[in-house]
Amino acid sequence: MDLADLSDAMIHLTNVAVQKHNDHYDEKRGGKWDLRALKLHLMMTEDPEKVHQLFNDMQDVIRFSLLSAA
Known about the structure:
The chain is an all-alpha fold and 70 residues long. The protein is built from 4 helices and no strands. Pfam families: TTL.
């Protein structure tokens, strides 16, 4: 949320073609986390109850999106 970061494309873009030129790019994992890694990170840094609620809400969004398409 630092204004100085607004011009840093490596922070905002999820395009691997751009990210792979970053000095901190991890060739093994790329610029992506799987959901398990994300949840573990959030559980260590945030209120676990809020993390569980977030993941339940994400499941609902996916479920209702699929139901609406069906």
